[in-house]
Design goal:
Radius of gyration: 27 Å
Keywords: Cell membrane, Membrane, Transmembrane, Transmembrane helix, Transport
Strand content: under 5%
Order of helices and strands: HHHHHHHHHHHHHEEHH
Number of domains: 2
Number of strands: 2
Main location: membrane
Largest sheet: 2 strands, antiparallel
Oligomer: single chain
GO biological process, one term: transmembrane transport
Number of helices: 15
Family: Belongs to the binding-protein-dependent transport system permease family. MalFG subfamily.
Helix content: over 70%
Protein name: Carbohydrate ABC transporter permease
CATH topology of the largest domain: MetI-like fold
Distance between the termini: 43 Å
CATH class of the largest domain: Mainly Alpha
Length: about 300
Amino acid sequence: MSYQLENTQRGEKYNSIFSKISPAKRRNRTARAHWRSRILLGLYLVLMILPIYWLINMSLQTNSEILGSMTLWPQNLTFDNYIGIFTNPSWYMGYVNSMLYVAMNMLITICVALPAAYAFSRYTFIGDKHLFFWLLTNLMAPPAVFLLPYFQLYYSVGLFDTHIAVALAHCLFNIPLAIWILEGFMSSVPKEIDETAYIDGYSFPRFFVKIFIPMIRSGIGVTLFFLFMFSWVELLLARTLTATDAQPIGMIMTRTSTASGIDWGTLAAAGVLTIIPGILVVYFVRNHIAKGFALGRT
């Protein structure tokens, strides 16, 4: 009782002090706080956008201008760096190769992870918790640990320097991640929906495709986002398991050093083009990502 009385008295004291402040002063304080938050947000956005702007700025300059003096915008605007990439097969095929094995990995992973996550969320079987934890342990090992086994295995079966080789190698990390994310979304769907669908005469494949998957489409969008992000930026496995025919763009970008030095303009243009697929993926799944980060296991 004494503790509640003390809190009540303290609240009344603060209210009396606040009431003594004139409305004009309160408005001034609110306005200052509002402007401080705007300034901090603007500073944060500038610091975040500055590297990207500088990359675009360099991609529109010549090497002599890049190495000569620091300029906030191109003095001699040129698109030769982009033209060189789109007219050189060794450059633009790097983007094609990267998008091919990323798309293959996303398709394989989501097809395997959806039924596996459903099994973990709906059924109880011997060793289910241990198996689920074992899948997550794959994410704890760095990709370098699996370089030698993958290289020897793929070289023996003739999969070396192919797109499917990189896609399957990335599945080792992406499938556990996809199962972990999707299981959280599926567990939030009541089991009564499954039982109602079976009573209405739905077969399991029909129920899973027409009813269940649309209910967790936000989780699928979040999962695809993370799958793309890992496969698109991963370089170590992609570099080791390819040689010429399936080289990713990241591998080609490391070969811009020549006898005359590093081709900074072309490297910057390649970096800008590398960011664009990620922006497109985020744009198309933005609604699912916004819902998914508020739900499920993310």
